[in-house]
Amino acid sequence: MKQYLFIYFLFLSATIFSQEVSISGHVTGTDSSSVTGATIVIKGSTLGTVTDKKGFYKIKNIKPGTYTIRVSYLGFETMERSVAIVKGDNNADFSIRESNIDLNEVVVTGTKSEKALKNVPVITQVISARKMLDLGINNVTEALQNAVPGLNVSQFGTRASITMQGMDAKYVLFLVDGERIAGEINGDIDYSMLNLENIDRIEIIKGASSSLYGSNAIGGVINLITKKITEPFDAKVYSRYSKYNELFSGAGIGFKKGIFGSRTSFNLSHTDGYDITKESPHDWTQNPYSSYSFNQKFEITPTSRLSLVPYAGYYQFERGNVSARPAHDLYEDLNAGLKGQYYLGKHFIDFSYYRDRYNTFNVLELMNNRKDTASWDIIQTVRTQGNFHLSDKNNLIAGIEYNYENLFSTRIDGGIKSAGEGVFYIQEDVRLGERWNFVAGIRTSRHSNYGLNAAPKISVMFRQGFLNFRASAGTGFRSPALKELYMNFDHFGEWFIIGNTKLKPEASKYLSGSVEFLKSWNNSSVTVYRNELSNMITDRWLPDSAQLTRQYQNVASASVYGFDFISKQKICNGFWLSTGYSYVHSHDNQTGRQLYGTTKHSGNISADFSFRKKDYSFTAQIFCKLMGEKFYEITTDATFRDRPYSTFRMTISQEYRWLRISTGIDNVFNLIIPQNINFISPGRRLFIGLNVDFGKIK
């Protein structure tokens, strides 16, 4: 009997071995040089790898069949090719073309499914990790302001605040890999906790996106996509230093071995702060601070059909104290989650759970630095989404999710408040011929406080040669935040902010149209839009109050309309000129006033030069940011307008093999405006950055 079993297992092993299928090949650039670190992915599976130092790759354990193989690398056009794989060893070589405009780059935010950038019915802007590295950019708000016309960043001490297309931050949904972020303050999240070392790219969608993403997506979505684990070994360190002892440093290390991959990243930042208003020595323009963050991600692929991604992160930010008050603030965030994906032939199912807790503490310096909890905010999301490839021209997604928020604050009535929301959404993406693409979807939700809401949207794209025409129409909604309902804040008896439990959900109707010119040497677009908001929530001074008091109220209606122009033009080999301009008309239909914190005119201009030869690359940029005047309401009878300004930045970056050195000047012409709320630069600052990629050391 033992002999028969031995023969049986020997035969079985030989059979399995003989059926092993693999594909290998060589990836080169346009000059026939090998491309190191290019990502190779077999679509419809969890299988993938990266090219080695000589540009070769190999993927094993594939079932025979016809597959689409995708090859991508920063600075090159993404390439896809259908390959028939048979038993044994297969070969497929790829030659990818260097380009500053990757029209085939795959994005996910606009349709919640993978789609080439040129084929997305909603204009999507992408900021790549390579671009941020070339320009020495060290934080998310700087990256966004550098690349997105109509997106404006104001800095209030250590906290940043954004507006996009005239809508403030509470209408713009920030995501990390599609998940919401806890810890809103006045609509803005804590942007400092977004670790760029861990980011592969940033995708930006302007306009109503509630049909897929729900509340808070009235004005758009900004999705940070983290790096995937593809390389056998990856280790990087970076540091950037500038005036006022401003330091940004970090490191990342990862590996992939068989079915298991891991990536760990760490980030540290610090500044001594500065003050450009010398008449108030205890109220600095930029407070000192120190912060650090840690992120861990694992990728497990037990089979070619199943992938599991558990992850976690921690962040701490401590503000230095320059005031006479013996206390300062400390913030921390702890998040964890699990994502999974299971393939069923051409279809697949995504499932995820995510939990994020953001804490705020008052540190009492005279009591041995005791930490008193001022607030905590917990959000949890569980989601399942089916992705159904009905045909080559028809894709359907449908999903369910549940969102829950639990909030404690010393500044809200009752201490602890909570809200939950159950969601169902569905979207169909249909291509008619080679020119027409229709995407229609609807999201329905039942909120624990506000009942049933529905947000439909339809987008159309028509392609005519090198022109893309797009149009979108949709509705959106935003449920009042817990703080807006229950706030009770006393600012040392000087003024008060109170909530309003009678608030109604905000609603919007959004229309947009655009035309885009697409060529390898030019990518330009013009987008016009209109956003009509009803029951808009804002805090207003109460005119009959005995003390200065602001209360959250529903404004009768507000209108926001305008246009964006974006262009990237190749002047000659290696030299590109990028321009962007945004006009926004926003006003409260009740008072006729411009919406608080908005600017009508903004734009940017940049001239980029790059040169690459084998192991060496050189990048230089001159960037100009143009900002019109901003409107602020001080009291019911007093307003303030920030003066318009322009600021310049220069950057030079050089990379040789595993070493990159970046140098630059912020605020080249030393502009200082002490009375400006929006612009708090202390003047001209030089910076130097260093990046080391240990994975490229031979």
Tell me what you see in this structure:
There is one protein chain. The protein is mainly beta. It folds into two domains: 1-98, Sandwich (Immunoglobulin-like); 143-152 and 169-696, TonB-dependent receptor, beta-barrel domain (Maltoporin, Chain A, Beta Barrel). The protein is 6% helix and 60% strand. The protein contains five helices and 44 strands. It has a 22-stranded antiparallel beta barrel. Strand 15 and strand 16 form a beta hairpin. The termini are far apart.
Features:
698 residues, Maltoporin, Chain A, mainly beta, Immunoglobulin-like, five-stranded mixed beta sheet, 2 domains, single chain
Largest sheet: 22 strands, antiparallel, barrel
Number of helical elements: 5
Q: Which superfamily, in CATH terms, is the homologous superfamily of the largest domain?
A: TonB-dependent receptor, beta-barrel domain
CATH topology of the largest domain: Maltoporin, Chain A
Task: Report the β-strand fraction as a percent range.
Answer: over 45%
- Gap between N and C termini: 54 Å
Oligomer: single chain
Mean of residue pLDDT? Answer: 87
**Rg, Cα atoms, Å:** 26 Å
Structural class: mainly beta
Can you tell me the CATH architecture of the largest domain?
Answer: Beta Barrel
CATH class (first level) name of the largest domain: Mainly Beta
Which segments are poorly predicted (pLDDT under 50) over 5 or more consecutive residues? Answer: 1-18
Shape: globular
What's the number of extended β-strand segments? 44
| Number of structurally distinct domains | 2
Proportion of helical residues? under 10%
